[in-house]
Design brief:
This protein is an alpha/beta fold. The protein is built from twelve helices and 14 strands. Strand 11 and strand 12 form a beta hairpin.
Length: 340
């Protein structure tokens, strides 16, 4: 993971979002698996990341060697801006402001991907054990509020993570129902990407399609009610997973979502030749484990024509570690610092 000549390093890691900023301190000596200290902050209560970092470090009397921050947005030339915050972050300015020699900004999904080489069996939930190829590429598909994607490549010494905006690629239907879904969304949107059908907003869009098509659900799961909810995703998932009073509309929505997720995870596996494995991250997969295990996901994943036999050999895991994004940001900081 790190340069073998490196001494024990203390790394400040951050997962920066429009709603919440999570900070943690890691020691490279323990493999970055468990933080020495961690804290969550409401992002909008602070004028910038520097103020949060100072607050956090004032409680931890530990010298920091490096810092890495995963941010919800693109990072260009060491500069990033979060869509839902007025913060502008620059690596050099942050380093000077908080007094840390090496500061790295990285896209949040790329940070998440950086955690994959650190994860053990207890951090993962297998969907397909497969037959991983030593040194094979790995892919990360992370449906949450949006759809994040990234991939990792072995460089002969360690795995390196790279960003992707594959979630914004054109949605490709695989059956008549999905073709109708595409037509429905095309009448409302200029561009229908996988993110529009394979994320939190995707669940809402699929739900609206089924209701428009005449499928009925429980009154509390109506589109009208969901449209007023701050976050409709928990309502749809609860309605689908409720065994005592299931919502048929929500169950159809989640079943369609899982099939589309399987197809797109398979697409990402093919495009990156992810013989080392596909890892599902983001906020949604851990909440729908039993649906992902029912076979529909993997059927869609391997349905790739002449490549189906290859697809069956690719491991698929769900990332369950709650601090994977922070671990990945710390790992990125160490790797980037080795290049200084």
């Amino acid at each position: 993971m790190t340069n073998p000549d490196e001494k024990d390093l203390t790394v400040l890691a951050g997962d920066i979002g429009g709603t919440k900023t999570a900070l943690a301190l890691f020691s490279s000596r323990n493999g970055l698996h468990s933080p020495m200290a961690a804290e969550n902050y409401p992002s909008k209560d602070y004028p910038g990341l520097e103020a949060i970092v100072r607050n956090f470090l004032s409680r931890c009397d530990i010298p920091i060697d490096r810092a890495g921050f995963g941010v919800a947005g693109p990072v260009v030339n060491g500069r990033a801006k979060i869509t839902n915050l007025p913060w502008v972050m620059e690596e050099k300015a942050l380093a000077q402001s908080i007094g840390i020699r090496s500061v790295c900004l990285v896209n949040d999904v790329t940070a998440f991907a950086n955690a994959v080489p650190l994860l053990g069996k207890n951090d993962l939930h297998p969907i397909n054990k497969g037959d991983p190829a030593q040194g094979g590429s790995m892919a990360v598909v992370a449906p949450g509020t949006g759809l994040g994607e990234a991939f990792l490549v072995w460089d002969g010494f360690r795995y390196r993570a790279f960003p992707s905006e594959g979630g914004h690629a054109d949605f490709a239907p695989t059956n008549p129902m999905e073709a109708e879904l595409l037509e429905f969304l095309s009448s409302r949107l200029d561009h229908v990407s996988y993110e529009r059908v394979c994320s939190g907003m995707g669940l809402s869009n699929i739900h609206a399609y089924f209701q428009r098509a005449g499928h009925e659900g429980n009154p509390e799961c109506s589109t009208e009610r969901l449209s007023t909810a701050e976050d409709p995703v928990p309502h749809i998932i609860r309605g689908a997973l409720n065994d005592k009073q299931p919502c048929r509309l929500c169950r159809k929505t989640l079943a369609a979502f899982v099939s589309i997720l399987g197809a797109e995870a398979g697409n990402m596996a093919l495009k990156t030749l992810a013989t080392g494995g596909v890892y599902l991250g983001g906020g949604i997969p851990p909440r729908i484990l039993r649906v992902l295990e029912n076979g529909d996901f993997f059927t869609a994943f391997i349905r790739k024509g002449r490549m189906s036999d290859l697809m069956k050999t690719i491991p698929v895991h769900i990332i369950m570690h709650p601090e994977a994004a922070l671990m990945g940001a710390a790992r990125h900081a160490i790797i980037a610092g080795c290049q200084d």
